[in-house]
Design goal:
By secondary structure, the chain is an alpha/beta fold. The protein has 13 helices and ten strands. The strands form two sheets. Strands 1-2-3-4-5-6-9-10 form an eight-stranded parallel β-barrel. The protein has a two-stranded antiparallel sheet with strand order 7-8. The longest helix is centred in the N-terminal third of the chain and has 29 residues. It is globular and about 45 Å long.
Length: about 350
Amino acid sequence: MKKFFYHFFKILGIIVAALLVLAMLILVEFNWPVESKNENMAFGVSYSPVFARSLELDWKQSYLDILDGLNVKKVRLASYWTEVEKAKGEYNFSETDWLLKEARERNVKVVLAYGIKVPRWPECFIPDFYTGDKTEREDALLRYESALVERYKNDPEIEMWQVENEPFLPFGDCLDGAVDGDLVDREAAQTKALDSTRPIMVTDSGELSFWYQAAKRADIFGTTLYRTIYKSGIGYFNYPLGPNFFRTKALFIDIFADQKNVIISELQGEPWGPAWIDDMSVEEQYKSMSPKKLKDIAEYARETKFSESYLWGAEWWYWLKTTKNRPEMWNAAREIINGG
């Protein structure tokens, strides 16, 4: 018996050592210096009236100032189901109508996201009267999305549809099981049936997902990309991952999901700290995002060699500039967006 345990622990030790060596080799590969980058990466922004209002901004004026002041050529917008269908079966698209009209007048190209999960907290936006029955909720969602695509499919500014936002990432204040693969399939199929002229994007977490579930359902796959986050009990945390981490994952979905089209749908451009933005000092905010960090993450994005990125945080830059008299984030973003 003593001999058995000796051999058992010896083999176990060899396996553990081999796994540690493998993990180290993978980490070295992920962080190996890249030899080339996409110098011509296009940078757009995401914009959310919901978030602008939470910062007590005039959501219309801030949108116009962001488009014009930053010389934006690409913007990712979202249609919020809770804003559109405030009364059961009645749709009010006036907010989205206005956002798209202003983009069209400026020749700004738009990614339009819709679904249960769309950008900004609480992540899930379900009208209260659809929170009970799953079948009723999904049927109502598809009716709303059908009305949306029919309304906007002839709008020239819309470049692609985004079906749900990180639907396979369990994050946000959402009903359990509200979004699953079957629902995403149905949403994507309906969108394709209504408009076969535009690609569909499905997104997932850059650091916390293998991408396969989203990538296999998309014409274009969109990844988030964050460098500094905050975790309770840990504090600020910098991901120890180089651009090759994202290149390797892109190769994985190329091979296993037949997905060659990858963009950065959400590139960190605002703080991730221990409190909401307006409850933190600017100094605290700058611990996770600052002008230098923004320029560094833009350079990191270029090194992934993906075609384009949508910066996250335009409302925050505007808030800093207009309410705190701190225009440095705004100026850094403008330089990046305009090729600097």
